[in-house]
Each structure stands twice: as structure tokens, then as C-alpha cells.
Design brief:
Blueprint: E1 9-14, E2 17-21, H1 26-33, E3 40-41, E4 52-55, H2 66-74, H3 77-88, H4 94-103, H5 112-119, H6 127-136, E5 140-148, H7 149-159, E6 163-167, E7 169-172, E8 175-180, H8 187-198, E9 205-209, H9 215-220, E10 223-227, H10 231-236, E11 239-241, H11 248-252
Parallel strand pairs: 4-5, 4-9, 5-6, 9-10, 10-11
Antiparallel strand pairs: 1-2, 3-11, 7-8
Helix pairs in contact: 2-3, 3-4
Length: 262
């Protein structure tokens, strides 16, 4: 590992989590530390206390991409999943790719949404502890997703978010019609919702996501976190959780385990 500028001192260790104080360039410190097989948070000691936490849903707060799972029920998962992967890597326009994927769901019985929720959607490990602990500390928690309201509403309630924003799948006569309501909640809209909830103080916001469409939101926040993320987002974020579950964010923020809300 390359030499790091400034003076280093061990401050604390908990469950193999080490906190260090250094005097130097944060970017250089992170670059050096990322050579380790560890989750790295490089955050200014004088950073303001978080007042807002904004999170993506699919593959961040839940373990699946809901549109891919819906496509499985429609018999078109391989086609949809490949487009989803390309969009999350930032290779396709999110809005256009979402319209194209949703079009393949045309004719799917609306009851499949509930079936998908019950059979496929699982909460990401650590999500409930993370969100409920932050809420107990007075942080506003908001779920902002390019996914769908059916899943976002239920996911937000189960985890403990105070609000959610998502895209609306259109249906008629009990079947999906293959369209999504406009305007689409895309990368720019995610950023706009963060700024709206931040109320002029984005430096007090924390944001977490996994895909390229989260980059504007992540970079607008005072502290942006990539969670098991695509390379484009990992490069843009202030911190990257690559190995642990979502409770790593609490460690990174310096919240002792004794204060976690189980």
C-alpha cells in the first residue's frame, strides 16, 4: 500500500472496524486504503451531522431488480435483465431503457405485482437496522427509486422510511398496459428529490445507491456511498461498501453498535 500523507493514529476498533485519524488529502487516503480488502469510508472529521438519508431501492435496499422479476413472470427475463444491467452500468439512457423494458410487460396480469412482492422481493441485510437507527437519531429517511410505486410503498413501510418516490406502472382492466407514467423518475429526478428534501442543505445529506443512474443523487449529497455498486458509481462516490451489509454505513458514520436500533 502506498505511503499516506500526514500523521495516522488508531482511534477505535469494533467488530474488525477500525477508525483512523489522518492529516492529508482525503482522495489520496481513499485511493491508498482501497488496496485493502475492506470497506472504506474517508470522511472529514468536521463533516456536519446527517439530517437526511436518501436511498435507492432495487439492489440497494432490496436484493432484486423488480422489473427483472416481473419480466420472469412474463417469460422475457433474459431480454429485460440484459437491458437493466446495461442501464445500471450507464451504457443506456435510463428513461428510454425503462420504457422499452416496461413495454415487454404488456398484458401481464396486475395480480402478479403482489405475487412478485411475496415471492421475490427480499429486504437487503442490514437495511432495517440502518434506516431505523438513523431515524432514531432524527435523520429524515427517504426512498427514491427508478422502480415502481407498488414495491416502493411496501418496501418503505417495511424498512421504516418516512417517505418514498417512484415510477407508476400503468394498468387497465386488471392488466399492465406496457407503459409507465410520465415524467419518468430518472437520474436527474433522483437528484431533484434529494435537493428538495435537503431544503437547501445538501451538505447534511447522505445518499446510497448501486447503479450509474444514482450518480447525480450521490454526488449532490454531502456524503455519497456506493453499495456493491457498478464501477461508474463506485468511482463517483465518497465511500464504497464492497463486502459488508448495509450496517457498514453505521460503522462508517461512527455510530456505535450499542446505539443501533435492532
Amino acid at each position: 500500500m502506498q505511503a499516506l500523507p500526514g500523521a495516522w493514529a488508531q482511534v477505535d476498533g469494533e467488530d474488525a472496524v477500525w477508525r483512523l485519524v489522518f492529516d492529508g488529502d482525503p482522495a489520496m487516503a481513499r485511493a491508498a486504503l482501497e488496496e485493502l480488502e475492506a470497506d472504506i469510508f474517508v470522511r472529514a472529521a468536521a463533516a456536519p451531522a446527517p439530517r437526511l438519508f436518501v436511498a435507492d431501492m432495487d439492489s440497494t435496499m432490496i436484493t432484486v431488480e423488480c422489473i427483472d422479476e416481473l419480466a420472469d413472470y412474463a417469460g422475457v427475463k433474459p431480454q429485460v435483465a440484459e437491458v437493466t444491467e446495461q442501464a445500471m452500468r450507464g451504457e443506456l439512457d435510463f428513461g428510454a431503457s425503462l420504457r422499452a423494458r416496461v413495454a415487454l410487460l404488456r398484458g401481464l396480469d396486475e395480480s402478479v405485482l403482489a405475487r412478485c412482492q411475496a415471492e421475490r422481493v427480499r429486504i437487503m441485510p442490514g437495511a432495517k437496522t440502518l434506516v431505523r437507527t438513523l431515524a432514531a437519531r432524527g435523520v429524515e429517511t427517504v426512498l427514491v427509486t427508478g422502480g415502481f410505486t407498488w414495491f416502493a410503498e411496501r418496501t418503505a413501510a417495511e424498512i421504516g422510511f418516512s417517505a418514498f418516490h417512484a415510477n407508476q406502472l400503468n394498468s387497465a382492466d386488471g392488466k399492465l398496459v406496457g407503459t409507465v407514467s410520465e415524467p419518468i423518475l430518472d437520474a436527474d429526478a433522483k437528484k431533484a428529490w434529494l435537493l428538495h428534501h435537503a431544503g437547501g442543505s445538501p451538505e447534511t445529506a447522505i445518499a446510497v445507491g448501486d447503479g450509474a443512474n444514482d450518480i447525480p443523487m450521490i454526488t449532490a449529497a454531502g456524503f455519497g456511498i456506493a453499495y456493491h455498486a457498478k464501477p461508474a458509481l463506485a468511482r463517483a462516490a465518497d465511500a464504497a461498501v464492497r463486502f459488508a451489509d448495509l450496517t457498514a454505513i453505521l460503522h462508517g458514520l461512527g455510530v456505535p453498535r450499542s446505539e443501533w436500533v435492532a
